[in-house]
Specification:
alpha/beta; Rossmann fold
């Protein structure tokens, strides 16, 4: 096997830090279809960090979609791999690997809080390396979150291109939607400036959030849903949330936020 592609990251992690993205994966129709229709339900958790807890949690949650899912946690740091191997459970293993995915061909890759620590120039090469390795119909999640997992953003990619951007939060933990800007994935965070689509989306979300402030008497989750409805009314291509809205979720097609040339 070729040497792992990538660099050692800080490795910060913690129990339930990635619960919002896990919940989204479990309920995403595209992710569910990919897992349920493949002959090999292999999932890679890339760069799981100093402790393997989020990899173990991912396996538990994805088994709601497919009971025989197999999860491999990959790390570029041998010490972290050994720590993972000591905590391995049936259906979950840990190995040395980077963006080349250790030669595996998973149907789903989760790379959370990994590329955020790389220079922006490295993102496309990392994406391409993973896209070349996923199986037919495979998907990749490139995401970032804060230390407690209350503010999260992620990009869903298929083997050809980015598909969508999702902003997710605990609605009780924000003052306005643009609080999520600090957790944008690396490919977008430097484009949150006037004239760029992501900046326009966040500003529109803030205006809509302020406009539906009256819904706050029913709680921030109701206010978040009202904000989404207002954005849709204004022409933003916001995906309809599932009926049970525990998290504040805002998903748009990648084309709606892809950086434009300056």
């Amino acid at each position: 096997m070729a040497a792992p592609i990538g660099q050692v990251t800080r490795g910060t992690t913690g129990h339930n830090r990635l619960r919002r993205s896990d919940r989204w994966l479990v309920h995403s129709s595209r992710v569910r279809t990919a897992l349920q229709t493949t002959s090999d339900p292999l999932v890679v958790d890339l760069g799981y960090g100093a402790k393997p807890v989020t990899t173990l949690e991912l396996a538990i949650r994805l088994r709601q979609v497919r009971a025989d899912v197999r999860v491999v946690g990959l790390e570029i740091d041998p010490e972290r791999v050994r720590a993972g191997q000591a905590a391995a459970t049936p259906g979950v293993e840990f190995a040395l690997g980077g963006f080349e995915l250790a030669g595996r061909r998973p149907v789903l890759v989760r790379a959370f809080n990994v590329l955020r620590q790389y220079p922006v120039e490295a993102v496309h090469d990392a994406w391409t390396a993973m896209q070349h390795r996923v199986s037919a119909g495979g998907l990749i999640v490139d995401g970032t979150c804060d230390e407690l997992g209350r503010l999260c953003c992620w990009i869903l990619l298929d083997a050809a291109a980015p598909v969508s951007l999702t902003l997710a939060c605990d609605p009780f933990a924000i003052e306005r939607p643009s609080d999520l800007a600090v957790r944008l994935p690396k490919i977008l965070i430097h484009h949150n400036v006037e004239g760029q689509p992501i900046h326009a989306l966040l500003r529109a979300a803030d205006r809509a959030w302020a406009s539906v402030a009256g819904h706050g008497v029913f709680g921030p989750r109701v206010r978040w849903r009202a904000m989404l409805e207002l954005l849709v009314g204004e022409g933003f291509p916001v995906a309809a949330p599932r009926r049970s809205l525990r998290d504040g979720i805002l998903t748009v097609p990648w084309a709606a936020v892809a950086p434009t040339a300056r």
